[in-house]
Hints:
Multidrug resistance efflux transporter family protein; transmembrane; 80% helix; transmembrane helix; membrane; EmrE
Amino acid sequence: MKEILIGIIASMFFAVTFILNRSMELAGGSWIWSSSLRFFFMVPFLLIIVIARRNLKQVIDEMLMNPLQWLCWSFFGFVLFYAPITFAASYGPGWLVAGTWQFTIVAGTLLAPLFFEKKGSSKRRQRIPFGALCISFIIVIGVVLIQWQKGSQVSLSELLLGVLPVVAAAFAYPLGNRKMMELCGGRLDTFQRVLGMTIASLPFWFIISAYGLIRVGLPSGSQVAQSFIVAICSGVIATTLFFIATDRVRNHQGRLASVEAAQSTQVLFVLIGEVILLSSPLPSGITWIGIALIVIGMAVHSFYSARLGIKQKKMVVLHRQNQKSMINDKVRPY
Length: 334
């Protein structure tokens, strides 16, 4: 339950991304700078945090042990996640991008077979948690209903360019995040892992920004300022909170799916933000049904996650009792 709450708070800060990315595009800024500047700004803040905690050396050691894997999964988790989102903001409104992003709820659940869990001395491929998957579809239906009314206001080209890149990002983000959790094996804390992934993604952002410099020139002062806000709110605060939540449930696919489902609340925060900051009209009609389904879906996910937690604790207690019983049997005199 605590992890889901952390996920919802992270979603509130993540919503800043969709609102300001759209704002920058409407002001004539390029998606190239919107994406790369965020990660350039993240580095000094994360460095200060990790250095203050005196565990920078551990990050460097971990990265040097598996440099190619750090580059690969940081590319998936950060570059292939954020570049398509900022690109999509050039062609679709914030609500469309944020709504489509919710496919990550289902995507994260479907990725389970790509990972293994240890059972004693052997490894077993993880299974798709169908209970969590079914609940996630309730949220997805709610997201579709939110977009249904506004969907007629955009052209087919805007719909495709505003949706397909985000669908790719929806699979890349949980894949990169989970693979890095698997690679680190709990040896790094959340701040260390986010810093390591940000540093590992920098070569790709330098290439993208060099392309932007040639194609569109330097970013405006307004875009730099807004990218700085996105870097703090979404890059540092939201990413760290979300990674903390997923780290705490990384060994349980059902509860992990519930935490990832908390991202669905981004749609609500984006709707509110666009109404206040970008003067978008208030939602009406079928949109409110969609909002209700998202709230219901999140409530069911919370209940489902709580039941899984209780069940898991009971299994741990039973396992310990069985171990004690076996030890007593061995030492019992005959």
